[in-house]
Amino acid sequence: MSRVSTTTTEETVVAPVETGYWTRARKVGAGLVGFGLVAAVLFGSIATSQTVRFTLSDDAQGAALEIDGTVGAILFGLIAAAAGAALFLERGARWFTALLGVGIVGFVLSFLCWQISDAPAGQNFMPLVNIVRGTFLLAVPLIFGALAGVLCERSGVVNVAIEGQLLMGAFSGALVGTMADSVWVGLIAAMVGGAFISLLLAIFSIRYLVDQVVMGIVLNLLAVGLTGFLYERLMQTDQAKYNQPPHFGNWDIPLLKEIPVLGPALFESNIFLYLALILVVVIHIALFRTRWGLRTRSVGEHPTAADTLGVRVLGLRYRNVLLAGVVAGIGGASYTLLLYSFTKNMIGGKGFIALAALIFGRWSPTGALLAALFFGFADQLGVYLGAINSVIPSQFLAMLPYLATILAVAGLVGRVRAPAADGKPYIKG
């Protein structure tokens, strides 16, 4: 295994180069060939000849893409296998990401052709608008959580406390939003709640040099215990006074909402989705195109060199960790100021999926967005399959987003390198 330095327009990355026969492309290609052939044979044999419809609306009406269930299961399975074969033969190594995407999509479509064709009569369709809308909705807290991770870890601080930041944001938004009867006051409170957890992370990790991973786990437990205690003492005793927060409505964007499929799903949505997408763009530009971003990345890669050039390493880390808490707090508010009231431990592990999205997205805001959408789709797919009475047990459907997380991080992400100083405390000489 040799190592070479490859320069991009954004940063210099040290990437491993595999020189043996079983390169990453061959391994992934072989896996896709296997999955594709299993899909073609297994799903093709148990799918029915019922016409499968992928409707371009939020119901069974209107235009649709139609295909015979058995034919679709076999065809899409073979497409996945063909993409894998191209990778295995290294005919498309330069198109690794595209071929990997084709293979995954082919396998998923083969699976869906089986499931939809086998659904009860009248339910043999998938409303794409609903699927896309649900994917974005379920991905929103993951996007905010992953962005919080990007801000911390690009600065050299491991953020395992995303779960606690989301939970504290959700609790603070619900409590203060209810008492003030204002979604905007609730949103500000959620930011403060997330920043509170970040402040503790910053103080103990940066000032007192506590192990950052251990500190993150402790803060998650603190958030669960504190919010659970206050929930039982306040919210359960008087829901109307402490736990009935007002909710943001949808904000439609004229013209853009007329775009087929994406328009109704993306541009007839809520403030949290718009904020998440805006923050992805803003943080990406700031991280790779501004002086602050250059200093942040230098502190995360080589803090001693940054300090030599006059960068206040510890001060920058404090500010970025606090900013990460504010961002994660907004993600927590998307639970209680959009759809639900607060319940104990309502985040349910989504903070750890956001951490996986951060790694899957290679510590990049845009990569984190795509990873969050991938996990959001897995979650939405489980909801959809339950709605059409899938033969797959509901317990397995509930596991889909977590299985997708394991598959993505362990099988698809490949070798990645975190910022060199990530998790390493800096002691000023």
TrEMBL record:
Alphabetical list of InterPro entries matching this protein: ABC_transp_permease (IPR001851)
Gene Ontology molecular-function annotations: transmembrane transporter activity
Primary location recorded for the protein, binned into one broad class: membrane
Membrane topology annotation: Multi-pass membrane protein
CC per GO annotation: plasma membrane
Compartments in which it is found: Cell membrane
Membrane-spanning intervals of the chain: 28-49, 69-89, 96-117, 129-150, 157-177, 183-206, 213-231, 271-288, 321-340, 352-375, 396-416
Signal peptide positions on this chain: none
Annotated CDD domains: TM_PBP1_transp_TpRbsC_like
Keywords, comma-separated and alphabetical: Cell membrane, Membrane, Transmembrane, Transmembrane helix
Pfam families per UniProt: BPD_transp_2 (PF02653)
Record bears the keyword rRNA processing: no
PANTHER family, alphabetized: GUANOSINE ABC TRANSPORTER PERMEASE PROTEIN NUPQ, SUGAR ABC TRANSPORTER INTEGRAL MEMBRANE PROTEIN-RELATED
Annotated protein name in UniProt: ABC transporter permease
Species this chain originates from: Phytohabitans rumicis
